[in-house]
Design a protein that fits this description.
- It is a single chain.
- The chain has about 70 residues and is mostly helical.
- It has helices spanning about 1-15, 25-45, 55-69.
- About 80% of the residues lie in helices and about 0% in strands.
């Protein structure tokens, strides 16, 4: 999974640099952010896992930092 993510990130970086792909809009990034959050909590629900407030804060902080670069 990590290799696939790196490959996809590399492909997207090259697509942005070559201007074959427009830079993502805030609308698209908001969908990515919310989708990631929903998936994380859905997996926790399905597995019966609970997250601490500190864990949630750290996850969101890191996610936003990655998306905003």
């Amino acid at each position: 999974m990590i290799a696939m993510r790196r490959e996809l990130a590399g492909w997207m970086t090259q697509a942005f640099k070559s201007q074959r792909m427009a830079k993502p809009r805030a609308e698209i990034l908001s969908h990515a952010l919310l989708g990631t959050l929903e998936a994380r909590f859905m997996h926790a629900y399905l597995h019966g896992t609970e997250f601490s407030e500190a864990n949630n804060h750290a996850f969101v902080k890191n996610l936003v930092a990655e998306i905003l670069g």
